[in-house]
Amino acid sequence: MMKFALVILVALAVSNPLEAYKVPSIGSGALANELQKFIDLIPLEKINAIISVYKKEDAEFQELLKYLQSSEFKLLVAEIEGFPEFIDILNYEQRAGLDAYYLVNEVNEYLHLSKLTPPFSRAKTSGIRGFLDEVEALIPLDKLKNLYQDRLKNSAVFAEFINKLKSPTAQSLLNKLCASKNFNNFLSKAKSHGVHLDVVKKHLKNVLGLNAPCIN
User: Tell me: the pLDDT tens digits for 116-151?
Assistant: First the structure.
């Protein structure tokens, strides 16, 4: 399996330079981010240079490249891609945040094979809650938190903005909203559609120090 993976690596390297390769992500990008840590440890520029030399000067390596374009190898790849187990693994990787279909189709393009089409998938829930689940999966929360702390310390205008959101004026505005019938109707509709209002209330309290008595 490792040797087969190396052959695929060669195919990708020959068709596209590997310098500073970015693992393709999708959705949350979680799996892609983890794999990127391993890719970052591999000296891709040096490997690409070696491939370039062997491609020009080594007869045995040139035979390998011919084999990669042969009908025999194309049939092997097509056979593997036809296995339900292979598709199952691809779909898992796709859901976990690695754009595995993009990688496979890079190889297929090099081999002049038909592209594989990923299944159309949505969040297990639908409606507003399903929409929010899909969008929330794309938000890099840790990076946003780190950026927030950094700007709070190093940007006077941002710190002033946050202080304004923490001010008595902001609390007064929230109190008036909570006294509004229209706003409470809006909250009821949001809650009925699965919006996590308790999380909103918690964030208002923990981040801005605001109390929202109408949110429960």
Answer: 988 765 445 567 777 777 777 778 888 889 999 999
Verdict on whether the full-model pTM lies above 0.70: no
CB contact set of 31 (below 8 Å; sequence gap of 6+) = 25, 93, 96, 97, 98
Q: Which residues contact 24 (CB under 8 A, 6 or more apart)?
A: 32, 98, 99, 102, 103
Q: What angle do CA 17, 19, 20 make, to 5 degrees?
A: 135
Query: What DSSP letter does each residue of 113-155 carry, written as one string?
Result: -PPP-------SS-HHHHHHHHHHTT--HHHHHHHHHHHHHH-
Residue 152 CA to chain centroid, in angstroms? 27
